[in-house]
Design a protein that fits this description.
The complex is a heterotrimer of chains A (227), B (218) and C (205).
Chain A: H1 5-26, H2 28-48, H3 55-73, H4 76-84, H5 87-93, H6 96-126, H7 133-159, H8 167-192, H9 200-226
Chain B: H1 2-20, H2 35-62, H3 65-97, H4 105-125, H5 130-146, H6 148-158, H7 179-217
Chain C: E1 2-13, E2 16-27, E3 31-35, H1 42-49, E4 57-64, E5 67-68, H2 71-77, E6 78-81, H3 93-103, H4 110-119, H5 135-147, E7 153-157, H6 165-179, E8 183-188, H7 191-194, E9 199-202
Classes of the chains: A mainly alpha (227), B mainly alpha (218), C alpha/beta (205).
Chain lengths: 227, 218, 205
């Protein structure tokens, strides 16, 4: 029988809700990601001083903090299943597509919570200009989509490797490099106070990147999950 | 056997001519002779990368371990040529632009290619089960390839190019090289490709022997 | 009427041969004991039958009324109880059951969950976190999970591990109940367990 898209949504929602519930009970990934973010932010703030940094440097620092914090927690969603031995039960019962969407949603939620906490601290510590908040939020949101879109499948890959260690960052970095370069560029210009239309190309790029990564992941996920 | 000797002779001729004919680029001078070696190496690096990705797709389709062997062999050879191209390019950069590394767009691209290959081998080393290693590294190499168009879009916007733009074709896509330079260059390109395919078949033969040895052991 | 067919199944990991040339043909009503000493590849065979691993050689077919079944159909009609399959420690027994039902696309009422828990002897413990269960209770909960989808193919790997006498009785009740409506494959070393099956497959050559 062909699966209705409603069926897929409710199954993905079940996966999402389950992961969220596990996370709320253990807070493992969230703690890792937040503590990492706050630690690096503090180090950055102490070492480069407080105010008067040029936007170029600010935006690069911001995305370095974001990248490494994301790397410290986003793989948990798959590693947890493999290490607890629950992946087998999931493989036998759940549609791989539903699992991918559920996990992607969970990672997005995790990254959003982190961003909501880290970003204000970043602005407080560095005294970055805040005139362009809406545009900043837009760039941030698209950046998170791209980050999660590309790394969720990498998380699934490394969860199945016997040595995990730094592999997540090693595999993710080359794929994320174009994204990070554009994000740094776009954020720099947002901090300089430019208008929406002048970073339209960057925004289009961010949307395209996120869409291509998610579509590619959906197509390839079952090979990663089932082999 | 005959073709190996002809390859030997032909490559010898290319080496001799590449140093005895006038330098291909007058403004850059002697250092521009690197062009006969650097560009073929970079070309094979990209060719091997593409072949590796195609074998990866074929592995996911028909699940034959041979395709995985081919994918990783192509990647290994590609990695070697990638390092060669990076080193020759870097030496050239030092001589003409004054520093070994400038984050010129093409330097950035080859650097990312090295990172991707490195990550690919790190991943392969981290998975013990053969089939799982094959499938996961295949997915990774396909995924890495998906990001290439984004890189092509991004990198020229981030840093300006120092590379000689007119080394092969000008803006009207006409060859800028004189007949002598062109002959040596294309001969070198062809011979490097033959060497690459030769190495590739040697790697294949080693793999086949390894698998045979495994079957005999039982 | 379901049918599970294995033809010339072999599996090796790298240079290591696990088993080779196993064939069988089971129909609804059949039960097969997979027997062999420790390390002979019983669990690996189970994983191959469930397409968690690919066979190195050979073919597995799942048939329903002689038509081969699609992946999604197979998923909704198989169940596994195995020492390698764990449930979520941080969820309660009921939450585990509800999750696996929803994710498989089954609608299940609170009554049914209660009934299942009662059947495996966990009545009243459904609200407790699985992390606090004993290993025998976890094994019982695995049975409850496996029966959620009323499987047409039931795979039991060491079915009575960690179970006390009452638990073992539940297992034989489950097997008796599903014997006529499902294909049951049992991987085991224990005489009393494989006597429950109608066929035998040895994997120790």
């Amino acid at each position: 029988m062909p699966q209705s898209s409603f069926g897929l949504i409710s199954k993905a929602a079940a996966v999402y809700a389950k992961d969220l519930r596990l996370e709320l009970r253990t807070k493992y990934a969230l703690n890792a990601i937040l503590m990492f973010g706050i630690t690096t932010l503090t180090v950055v703030s102490f070492s480069v001083g407080q105010s008067g940094l040029p936007p170029k440097l600010l935006s690069a620092l911001f995305w370095i903090v974001m990248f490494f914090s994301a790397m410290s927690g986003l793989a948990q969603v798959f590693i947890r299943e493999e290490e607890a031995g629950t992946a087998l039960a999931m493989k036998l019962t759940a549609d791989p597509d539903a699992i991918y969407w559920g996990k992607l949603g969970f990672n997005l939620t995790l990254l959003s919570i982190m961003t909501v906490i880290i970003t204000p601290i970043f602005f407080v510590f560095t005294d970055a200009p805040t005139d362009n908040v809406l545009l900043f939020v837009l760039v941030l949101f698209l950046g998170m989509l791209g980050l999660c879109g590309a790394t969720t499948i990498i998380a699934a890959i490394i969860a199945r490797a016997s040595v995990k260690g730094a592999l997540f960052a090693v595999l993710s970095f080359p794929l994320l490099l174009p994204l990070l370069l554009v994000l740094v560029k776009a954020t720099e210009r947002v901090l300089l106070g430019v208008s929406f239309s002048s970073i339209a190309i960057e925004l289009q790029f961010l949307v395209a990147f996120a869409v291509v990564m998610v579509v590619g992941s959906v197509m390839l996920f079952k090979f990663v999950w089932l082999d | 056997m005959w073709w190996k000797w002809s390859l030997f002779v032909a490559m010898g001729l290319v080496i001799v001519f590449s140093f005895t004919t006038p330098a291909p680029q007058q403004q850059i001078g002697e250092a521009s002779r690197v062009f006969y070696y650097h560009i073929p190496q970079a070309w094979i690096c990209v060719l091997a990368f593409m072949m590796s990705m195609i074998f990866s797709i074929r592995y996911l389709k028909n699940r034959s371990m041979e395709e995985d062997d081919r994918a990783s062999d192509a990647a290994r050879l590609g990695f070697i040529f990638c390092i060669l191209a990076t080193v020759t390019g870097s030496i050239f950069a030092k001589v003409t632009w004054g520093s070994f590394w400038n984050w010129d767009p093409r330097e950035t691209s080859i650097f990312i290619l090295l990172l991707i290959y490195g990550a690919y081998f790190a991943l392969r080393g981290a998975i013990e089960v053969e089939e799982r290693r094959a499938a996961l590294s295949a997915v990774y190499s396909i995924f890495a390839f998906i990001t290439v168009p984004f890189l092509i879009f991004v990198i020229p916007r981030i840093t300006p190019s120092l590379h000689p733009e007119d080394s092969i074709v000008d803006e009207n896509l006409k060859f800028t090289m004189g007949p002598v330079v062109r002959t040596i260059f294309f001969a070198s390109l062809a011979l490097f490709s033959v060497i690459y395919f030769w190495m590739f078949t040697l790697a294949r033969r080693v793999r086949i022997l390894e698998r045979k040895g495994m079957e005999i052991e039982e | 009427m379901y049918r599970l067919k294995g033809e010339g199944l072999s599996k090796r990991f790298g240079g290591l041969k696990v088993f080779s040339k196993l064939s069988f043909d089971l129909r609804t009503g059949d039960s097969m004991a997979v027997v062999g000493p420790n390390g002979s590849g019983k669990s690996t065979l189970m994983m191959v039958l469930l397409s968690i691993y690919r066979p190195t050689r050979g073919k597995i077919s799942y048939l329903r009324d002689e038509n081969s079944m699609e992946e999604a159909q197979i998923r909704s009609s198989v169940s596994l109880v195995s020492p390698y399959l764990n449930l979520y420690d941080q969820l309660s027994g009921e939450e585990n059951l509800k999750f696996f039902a929803t994710v498989a696309g089954e609608s299940v009422t609170g009554k049914e969950i209660e009934r299942l828990l009662e059947k495996v002897g966990l009545a009243g413990r459904g609200m407790d976190l699985v992390g606090g269960y004993s290993s025998g209770m976890k094994q019982r909960l695995k049975y409850a999970t496996a029966l959620l989808n009323k499987p047409a193919f039931l795979f039991l790997d060491e079915p009575t591990s960690n179970l006390d006498a009452a638990g073992k009785k539940i297992v034989s009740e489950v097997i008796e109940e599903y014997r006529s409506q499902a294909i049951i494959v049992i991987a085991t070393n224990e005489q009393e367990e494989y006597s429950l099956a109608t066929k035998q497959l040895r994997v120790d050559q």
